[in-house]
Amino acid sequence: MSIDHRTTWDIYASAWKAATTDDKAVALRTSVAPDAIYRDPLTEARGHAALLAAMLAFHQGVPGGHFVTTQFQAHHDRSIAHWTMHDAHNALIGNGTSYGEYGPDGRLVAMTGFYALPT
After folding, report:
1. Which of 58, 38, 55 is nearest to 107 (CA)?
2. Would the pTM count as exceeding 0.85?
């Protein structure tokens, strides 16, 4: 069975952009294992509820903020995604790289984001 990690990644990334909590939750259930762990320089979240809370906090700080994957590579159930972060008006406000690990069902089990912290 061939698993399309890019599609999984795109669904996961869409959760960060989704306007409603329900839409975020649906995208997470589809693309992320229930006990997955998310890490970035400011956050660590385990499971859907904690990740959803992190996404909602992100949107409080960056209303309309979202990510655009600019490059994606995957092999052996691992991926690297380079991305840009945009505000609600689609202005570029940052960039970074994320590393993903995928479980046997193709959903993400770990996501780690790397980006420069604001000074």
Report:
1. 38
2. yes
